[in-house]
Amino acid sequence: MFKRNQRYLRKNNVTYIRVLDRRRPNGYSNSHAIALNWIWKNVAKKRKNNFGFLDHDIYPVKEIDITDYVKTDPIYGKYYEAGGIWYLWAGFAFFNWEHVKNMPLNFHRYKILGFIKKRDVDTGSANWNCLYKKLDITKLKPCSDEFLPMITGSDIEVNYISSRNWLHIFDGGNRYNTNGSKVEAVLKYIDTL
């Protein structure tokens, strides 16, 4: 699957940076945030164009142009609401460069008074003050999230995101040690689409 995604990205002139550091400072959310903050500062700010983040277990299943996501809206992605705030899930989030270029984006978890973590929020929620609370969520293009039954003959749960353009595997990193190869089963499933 990795090679298939690489070909797709090269064909569409999309930069892909694979984070290989397996250290988990204070949990998965912080590790993810460190990687996204590095990309924001060292790639997005230098390229000065629209950008997005995809989790490792999301696969394109249709030909799409991801720049369409933020042509008319400042952001696009899958929204989460928790702890009285909303934010984009860092695994499927796109940003319009002109809208965010001067913002002090921070992809860590939101903290009250700078040190108390807000309950139930995840990676990217720290952008609440500088970005999300200034936007009217009801005026943004919605992102669909359609859950599917488990793939036949496996214990793999999947969902489609954004009008069935993307397929997301739950626990694609296999943290819960489920049986079988999820990636192989998902590849077979995608080939049937």
Would you give an account of this structure?
- By secondary structure, this protein is of the alpha+beta class.
- It folds into two domains: 2-139, no CATH class; 145-191, no CATH class.
- The chain has four helices and nine strands; from the N terminus they run H-H-E-E-E-E-H-E-E-E-E-E-H.
- It has helices at residues 2-11, 28-47, 97-100, 182-191, and strands at residues 51-54, 58-60, 75-82, 85-95, 111-112, 116-117, 145-147, 158-161, 166-169.
- Strands 2-9-8-7 form a four-stranded antiparallel sheet, with helices on one face. A three-stranded antiparallel sheet has the order 1-4-3. Strands 5-6 form a two-stranded antiparallel sheet.
- The protein starts with a helix and ends with a helix.
Helices and strands, in order, run as HHEEEEHEEEEEH
Distance between the termini: 15 Å
Order of strands, main sheet, comes to: 2-9-8-7
Name the assembly state: single chain
| Envelope shape | globular
In helices, the fraction of residues equals 10-25%
Low-confidence stretches: none
Average pLDDT metric = 80
- Overall structural class, as computed from helix and strand content, comes to alpha+beta
Radius of gyration over C-alpha positions, nearest whole angstrom:
17 Å
Count of individual helical segments: 4
Strand residue percentage? 15-25%
Total domain modules: 2
User: Main beta sheet, described?
Assistant: 4 strands, antiparallel
* Number of beta strands: 9
Quick summary:
The protein has 2 domains: about 1-140, no CATH class; about 145-190, no CATH class. The chain is built from 4 helices and 9 strands, in the order ααββββαβββββα.
